[in-house]
Amino acid sequence: MTFKITILGLGQVGTSIGLALAAHADKIERTGHDKNFVRASKARELGALDKVELNLPRSVEQADLVILALPIPAIKATLRSIAPDLRQNVVVADTSPIKGQITGWQADLEPGHHYIGLVPALSPHHITDLERPAHADLFRGGVMGIISPPGTPGTAVKLAADLVALLGAESFFMDLQESDNLMASAHLLPQLLSAALIHQTVDGPGWPEMRRLAGRAYAAVSLPAASQDEPQALAQAALINPAASLRALDAYLQTLTNLRTQIAAGDEAQLTSTLSQAAEARQRWWSERTAGNWLQIEAAGPKLPPKTGFLERLLGLGRQK
Q1: I want to staple 237 with a disulfide (CB 3.0 to 4.6 A). Which of 17, 98, 145, 246 is the partner?
Q2: Per the domain annotation, does 274 fall within a domain?
Q3: Tens of pLDDT along 12-68?
Q4: Cβ pair 22, 134 in contact under 8 A
Q5: Are residues 20 and 88 in the same domain?
Q6: How far apart are CA 123 and CA 141, in angstroms?
Q7: In sequence order, what are the residues at sequence separation of 6 or more whose Cβ sits closer than 8 angstroms to the Cβ of residue 159?
Q8: Backbone angles phi, psi at 50, to 5 degrees
């Protein structure tokens, strides 16, 4: 029995998923589709796919699992386009960092078609890659959030958990609101702050001279605006759940206000303490993130379902008796 997976969107995430599944190519058939045929062909050449399907609806007709590795602006239209051609009991998963209304778009799916939201976190070995290449181990050693709307059957959730295991990541079961609140600060806020810094400096009167002096600190903070989400995707992600975006921005503005107050008061001791705490907290997070031993760091945390799931049984990954 061959399990059929279709990957829609063959950028870094989609191609990396295909590459990670290559080790099980004897039992998994990987079909890919991307509106950019050159990108799709490259993914096939890398070994991420067994075949490329140019026709979008046809690409999902036989799929048991459809993965939408697409920017937010493309997800709604894609769901509507593929809905009539999906098989019964198919699981449709997306990898966008912010879910918000996306779980509502599942209404375009017929009864018997199940939606799962995936929130991937990159492997610590690739988190600083600037060129964003695809890797078979892009997610290995990281976690991947799993969000299931009410009423999602357990088989669909287990299938998602099995997929995460095959990608080398740890499942992290999350509530939709919890996920969006966390990602508003962890994913959206750094990019919005980066854009704000660029506007504040480039549009300022001293920029012609400043651009010659800007160095490592400026390069590091301004990088997300140019290397992460496309502007339209970032804008839609911020607007898809405005309450979470505004909370993250308001909290950051309060932190800036506190720093301003300390500087205005000339309080060197307090300012030094604040900056030292930030440096120590960043180092602590980086040590934890690179180690990835979250079960040791947090003894009480989400755990994988205890029973062997469908993909594990299919691939013979269950515990031997």
Answers
A1: 98
A2: no
A3: 999 999 999 999 988 999 999 999 999 999 999 999 999 999 999 999 999 999 999
A4: no
A5: yes
A6: 5
A7: 65, 91, 116, 309, 310, 311
A8: -90, -30
